[in-house]
């Protein structure tokens, strides 16, 4: 039986304070008419970006029991969406989850959280990068940032990379399995204070780009917000370029709305102030079609 409301399994960690991971995934998907079903990988008192001495509870040993209960009661998912994974064992659990809950017309989005600004996160060694390369083979959509795309392809981090080479990167990533590849946070060498997002759809060999103006602040959780809007948008039936556009515009609005306040950046964007904009109709698109 088809779900009357699209249902997404959200496999992320949960921070009690700070707007990252499940703290943003749940309200965004709910606002977009999607039921989020949380499979928490860990519980933290705060997220790790900018906070010290946080309390951390690893839920790896409990994840399979949750999955087994869902299987026993016959839960059906329209989407499977994974984010930060803390160990090779968690990647194995997600891979098995995808196999066990597979069904027709299901969206599988993997956000391969590995690092940023050319550096891996502290928990991301070579084994995690290798395992993530295997996991993305099961995805329909992946959303790596520029650093993560370089890791997945075993390429050097080079902010001066050409657009032509980036286009090749998206096709190489798509050749590993995912039909749709979105690379975020791409530096634009010739554009001051500009970054871009590049998307490729392998089935029809089409590519799109959206440029983003730079705001001089870093807010944790914006990658989770971006990927969550993409999931919600695709489940609503939007095309890839419209989903890309909606995600870029929403993250930009959230950052701009937050930047005007004297507010600790480590707490994340003021998501609650901009959530209603997710239900606004798409009035204009800023994506460029690339040949």
Helix-strand blueprint:
Layout: E1 7-11, E2 14-17, H1 22-31, E3 35-38, E4 42-46, E5 56-58, H2 60-73, E6 79-82, H3 88-100, E7 107-110, E8 115-116, E9 119-120, H4 126-135, E10 141-142, H5 146-153, H6 163-174, E11 180-187, E12 194-201, E13 206-213, H7 222-235, H8 240-259, H9 271-274, E14 288-290
Parallel strand pairs: 1-3, 1-6, 2-4, 6-7, 7-10, 10-11
Antiparallel strand pairs: 4-5, 8-9, 11-12, 12-13, 13-14
Can you write the helix and strand succession as a string? EEHEEEHEHEEEHEHHEEEHHHE
Q: What is the terminal separation in angstroms?
A: 41 Å
CATH architecture: 3-Layer(aba) Sandwich
CA-based shape: globular
Q: Please count the helical segments.
A: 9
Share of β-strand residues: 15-25%
Low-confidence stretches: none
The largest sheet, given as strand count, sense and whether it forms a barrel, is: 9 strands, mixed
Number of domains: 1
Helix content: 25-40%
The residue-averaged pLDDT reads 92
The helix/strand class is: alpha/beta
Short description:
This protein is an alpha/beta fold.
Q: Which short descriptors sum up this protein?
A:
about 20% strand, 3-stranded mixed β-sheet, 14 strands, alpha/beta, UDP-N-acetylmuramoyl-L-alanine:D-glutamate ligase, 9-stranded mixed β-sheet, about 35% helix, about 290 residues
What does this structure look like?
With 291 residues, the protein is of the alpha/beta class. The protein has one domain (7-290): UDP-N-acetylmuramoyl-L-alanine:D-glutamate ligase (3-Layer(aba) Sandwich). 36% of the residues lie in helices and 21% in strands. Strands 3-1-6-7-10-11-12-13-14 form a 9-stranded mixed β-sheet. Helix 3 (88-100) links the parallel strand 6 (79-82) and strand 7. It is globular and about 55 Å long. The mean pLDDT is 92.
């Amino acid at each position: 039986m088809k779900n009357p409301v699209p249902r997404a399994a959200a496999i992320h960690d949960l921070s009690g304070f700070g707007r990252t991971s499940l703290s943003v995934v749940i309200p965004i998907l709910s606002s977009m008419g999607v039921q989020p079903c949380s499979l928490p990988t860990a519980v933290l008192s705060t997220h790790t970006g900018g906070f010290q001495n946080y309390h951390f509870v690893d839920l790896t040993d409990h994840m399979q029991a949750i999955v087994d209960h869902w299987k026993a009661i016959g839960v059906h998912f329209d989407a499977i969406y994974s984010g930060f994974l803390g160990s090779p064992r968690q990647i194995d659990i997600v891979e098995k989850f995808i196999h066990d809950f597979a069904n027709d017309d299901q969206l599988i989005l993997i956000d391969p959280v590995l690092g940023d600004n050319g550096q891996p996160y502290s928990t991301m060694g070579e084994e995690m990068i290798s395992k993530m390369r295997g996991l993305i083979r099961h995805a329909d959509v992946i959303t790596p940032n520029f650093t993560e795309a370089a890791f997945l392809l075993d390429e050097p981090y080079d902010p001066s990379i050409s657009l032509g080479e980036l286009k090749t990167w998206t096709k190489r990533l798509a050749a590993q399995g995912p039909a749709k590849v979105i690379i975020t946070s791409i530096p634009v060498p010739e554009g001051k204070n500009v970054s871009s997002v590049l998307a490729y759809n392998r089935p029809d060999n089409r590519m799109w780009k959206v440029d983003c103006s730079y705001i001089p602040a870093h807010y944790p959780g914006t990658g989770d917000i971006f990927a969550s809007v993409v999931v919600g948008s695709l489940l609503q039936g939007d095309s890839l370029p419209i989903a890309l556009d909606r995600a870029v515009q929403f993250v930009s609005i959230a950052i701009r709305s937050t930047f005007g306040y004297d507010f600790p950046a480590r707490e994340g964007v003021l998501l609650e102030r901009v959530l209603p904009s997710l239900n606004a109709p798409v009035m204009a698109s800023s994506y460029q079609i690339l040949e």
